[in-house]
């Protein structure tokens, strides 16, 4: 700026300007000039320089005014969020809860029956499902094949072309692109209403995805300059040069564009570390500012975008599209619950709570600090603040190993999941849902020919995890390399676990929405609902305004008894005129629909247990991915997330009930029902593997052990019941290996196969090396242990190989089964066909 301009601004302000302020004004005016030049390059060049500066100054001034208004709006939104949170903390304090525990419940879902706040986690999940249900065509066009093994690249490419304004020739792809544009724009506007500041780009087509590691090593060199030069050279032909202008309206030269792209490379390759200042706080800044970067990488067409993704992306296009919705939903959820700067407000409330608790009782300082750490871990998990992997290669290798184990070891979980029926009934009873309606809906959901039922459920925001290839229930949240992720997903689908899980979730969700619709129809207000009959519903933080909006919805009729369905679509179809007396119709509908999905999905994940952020934070214990400690811990916890969630959720809920009698009844019912169904799972597994049922008589030899195994299996601990009374599992693994997880078990098997057999050989013992190699190969071969094919594969192939390489091995296996478990075989090991049916009377032998 000229001195005269600086003096003019200083006179207007009544004080001198600092050099930082001068630079800021210059940068703002230059940015305004570039933007105005890009809007009308030819017209801009024809204007005198004085006119350009005048218009740029006016544009910059308008921006300053808008920013001031936004700042004021953010301050108001922050005050409102703080007020809501403080009100929650006061109400919980009245019930005897400490402040840190109250904050904890605002962050992650808590199963207690005495909550009164919808957490960031639940709110975010509801926003995501509300958005995903609106892009069903995109999900159908771009979804992987039926087993999730092969990515539907052609379908997704058609959607990408449509998003870039190019015709794909596919009407469904065109409709899918329209759905995605609508949802992307809706989330952008909702984020801005929460205090965000994401501008609308006229040429916005696809969310960009960059693999930091691929960009950083573009030339596969250790020299940064060489990698930068290679990336710039690659992307230069793909960008839309019509989007890059100078302040005078002329297009940037190749040198200028290369310089700009070089800066972009540095930001992407370093993960933004180049923008941090040494010594400054390394937080993420105001969440509401996320997405307000210039977003200045513009691809000229779909082919250019696809070429870039093929070389510098590491996710499939389908994952990029749906992942963008999930990411935006997380940002919207955070600002709507904790205000425009959730990190700052959370930190303030946490620090104040800790300070007040220590001052009230200084002897608790150690416990308070420990609790702060726990709540911080939960917040990091929910808000996506967890550190990235220390070593991307180590994390990817462990992800691949765990995915391989999922594909080879998790294929009988469908049978173990029988205990879902128990948790569904217990949860339905506490929620006062009609049990017969739940059974009818489950039978309808299990009918694969009933396509309409599935479609309506998905349209209501239910049953979407399979479409996302989620393995969160028994597996991992980080699935690593695409091929191993697809392998794991395919194995779970082939086992029918996904189908069973989604059918149960759909049936519970539909029953819940129907029951809620009936309550809304039959009650004039929230206060008129009977507290004892709807304890859980009333603990969800529903407001009278939410209920008033629900009352104005026209309930849907899904036929077959589901004629009082309160769904998101029913809420969004409420006309503006019916809501103006309550406030802004758009916000009211969004909030009411989100609340509906939040409370429904919370209980769906209680009925058919799915671990959430709380369980992940507890199991990961603050360890970082990509470190040996972090990866070993995640490997130890593989397959344990479900039983962990069973205890964390249902025991927590049971113990939160208002009286001892209710607590005892809940826990007793849970244990009894899951144990009975655990026994059913146990017996089915035995017969599928060719063995007669175990005895049900607790007084018979081994009977009590069988019921203890059923108790543990009903809690989804699987094979761990075998270790109560035997030093080894039926598959030869030790207790230590079982408790330390399948990765450690795999290492133990490998050691036994090599060093163990060598030691036995030196001692002159029969090693059975050949049979053990076959067993090791079988147990680590994907799809070889599918529950419905395992028995046939064992008898037709693996038994034959074991006996061939180690004669006498099968007879020892039979003897061991009789000795340790008191069982006989109805399908003798090594026989191609069974000679008799299972002896069901063995289950009732004395």
Computed over alpha carbons, the radius of gyration is: 30 Å
Low-pLDDT runs of 5+ residues are: 716-732
Proportion of β residues?
A: under 5%
Write down the overall geometry. Answer: globular
Total number of helical segments?
A: 36
Main sheet record: none
Beta strands, count? 0
Mean pLDDT: 86
Structural class: mainly alpha
Count of domains: 4
State the end-to-end CA separation: 98 Å
Helix content bin: 55-70%
Q: What's the gist of this structure?
A:
The chain is 61% helix and 0% strand. With 846 residues, it is mostly helical.
Describe this structure in words.
- The protein is 61% helix and 0% strand.
- It is mainly α.
- The protein folds into four domains: 21-207 and 315-385, no CATH class; 210-274 and 295-313, no CATH class; 392-412 and 430-639, no CATH class; 660-844, no CATH class.
- Helix 24 (544-551) crosses helix 26 (585-607), helix 29 (641-655) runs antiparallel to helix 30 (660-688) and helix 33 runs antiparallel to helix 34 (769-779).
- The chain is globular.
């Amino acid at each position: 700026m000229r001195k005269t301009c600086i003096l003019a601004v200083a006179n207007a302000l009544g004080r001198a300007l600092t050099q930082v302020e001068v630079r800021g004004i210059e940068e703002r005016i230059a940015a305004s000039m570039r933007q105005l030049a890009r809007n009308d390059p030819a017209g801009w060049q024809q204007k005198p320089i004085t006119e350009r500066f005048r218009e740029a100054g006016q544009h910059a001034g308008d921006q300053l005014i808008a920013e001031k208004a936004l700042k004021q709006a953010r301050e108001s939104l922050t005050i409102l969020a703080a007020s809501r949170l403080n009100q929650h903390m006061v109400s919980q304090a009245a019930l005897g809860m400490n402040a840190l525990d109250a904050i904890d419940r605002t962050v992650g879902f808590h199963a207690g029956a005495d909550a009164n706040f919808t957490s960031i986690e639940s709110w975010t999940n509801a926003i995501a499902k509300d958005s995903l249900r609106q892009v069903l065509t995109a999900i159908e066009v771009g979804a992987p094949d039926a087993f999730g093994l092969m990515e539907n690249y052609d379908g997704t490419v058609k959607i990408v072309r449509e998003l870039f304004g190019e015709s794909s020739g596919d009407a469904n792809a065109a409709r899918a692109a329209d759905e995605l544009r609508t949802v992307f724009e809706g989330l952008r506007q909702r984020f801005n209403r929460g205090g965000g500041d994401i501008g609308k780009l006229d040429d916005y087509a696809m969310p960009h995805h960059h693999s930091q590691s691929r960009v950083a090593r573009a030339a596969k060199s250790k020299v940064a300059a060489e990698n930068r030069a290679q990336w710039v050279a690659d992307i230069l032909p793909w960008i839309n040069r019509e989007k890059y202008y100078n302040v005078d309206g002329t297009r940037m030269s190749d040198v200028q564009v290369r310089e700009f792209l070089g800066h972009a490379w540095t930001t992407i390759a370093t993960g933004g570390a180049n923008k941090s200042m040494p010594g400054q706080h390394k937080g993420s800044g105001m969440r509401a500012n996320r997405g307000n970067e210039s977003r200045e990488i513009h691809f000229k067409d779909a082919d250019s975008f696809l070429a870039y993704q093929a070389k510098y992306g590491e996710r499939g296009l389908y994952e990029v599209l749906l992942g963008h919705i999930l990411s935006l939903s997380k940002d919207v959820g955070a600002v709507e619950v904790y205000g425009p700067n959730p990190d700052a407000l959370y930190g303030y409330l946490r620090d104040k709570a800790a300070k007040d608790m220590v001052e009230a009782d200084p002897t608790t300082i150690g416990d308070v600090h420990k609790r702060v750490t726990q709540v911080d871990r939960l917040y990091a998990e929910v808000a996506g603040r967890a550190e990235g992997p220390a070593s991307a290669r180590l994390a990817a290798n462990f992800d691949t190993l765990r995915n391989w184990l999922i594909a080879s070891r998790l294929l009988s979980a469908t049978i173990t999941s029988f205990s879902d029926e128990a948790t569904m009934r217990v949860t339905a009873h506490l929620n006062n849902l009609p049990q017969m309606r739940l059974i009818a809906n489950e039978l309808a959901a299990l009918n694969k020919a009933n396509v309409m039922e599935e479609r309506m459920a998905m349209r209501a925001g239910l049953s979407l995890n399979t479409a996302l290839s989620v393995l969160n229930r028994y597996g991992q949240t980080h699935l690593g390399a695409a091929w191993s992720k697809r392998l794991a997903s395919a194995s779970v689908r082939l086992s029918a676990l996904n189908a069973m899980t989604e059918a149960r979730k759909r049936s519970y969700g539909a029953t819940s929405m129907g029951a809620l619709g009936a309550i809304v129809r039959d009650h004039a207000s929230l206060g008129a609902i009977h507290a004892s009959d709807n304890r859980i519903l009333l603990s969800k933080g529903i407001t009278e305004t939410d209920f008033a909006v629900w009352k104005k919805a026209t309930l849907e009729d899904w036929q077959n008894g589901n004629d009082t369905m309160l769904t998101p679509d029913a809420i969004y179809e409420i006309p503006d005129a019916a809501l103006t007396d309550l406030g802004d119709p758009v916000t009211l509908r969004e909030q009411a629909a989100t609340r509906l999905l939040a409370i429904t999905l919370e209980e769906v994940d209680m009925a058919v247990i799915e671990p959430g952020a709380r369980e992940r934070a507890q199991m990961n214990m603050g360890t970082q991915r990509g470190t040996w400690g972090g990866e070993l811990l995640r490997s130890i916890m593989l397959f344990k997330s479900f039983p962990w969630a069973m205890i964390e959720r249902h025991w927590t809920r049971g113990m939160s009930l208002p009286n001892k009698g209710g607590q005892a009844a809940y826990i007793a019912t849970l244990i009894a029902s899951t144990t009975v169904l655990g026994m059913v799972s146990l017996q089915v597994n035995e017969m599928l593997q060719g063995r007669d049922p175990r005895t049900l008589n607790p007084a018979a030899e081994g009977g009590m052990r069988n019921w203890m195994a059923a108790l543990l299996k009903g809690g989804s601990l699987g094979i761990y019941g075998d270790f109560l009374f035997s030093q080894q599992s039926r598959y030869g693994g030790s207790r230590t290996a079982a408790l330390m997880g399948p990765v450690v078990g795999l290492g133990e098997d490998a050691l036994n196969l090599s060093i163990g057999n060598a030691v036995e050989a030196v001692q002159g013992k029969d090693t059975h090396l050949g049979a053990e190699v076959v067993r090791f190969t079988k147990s680590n071969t994907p799809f070889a242990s599918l529950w419905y094919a395992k028995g046939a594969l064992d008898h037709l192939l693996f038994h034959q190989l074991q006996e061939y390489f180690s004669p006498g091995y099968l007879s020892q296996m039979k003897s061991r089964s009789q000795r340790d478990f008191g069982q006989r075989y109805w399908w003798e090991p090594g026989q191609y066909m069974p000679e008799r049916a299972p002896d069901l009377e063995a289950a009732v032998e004395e």
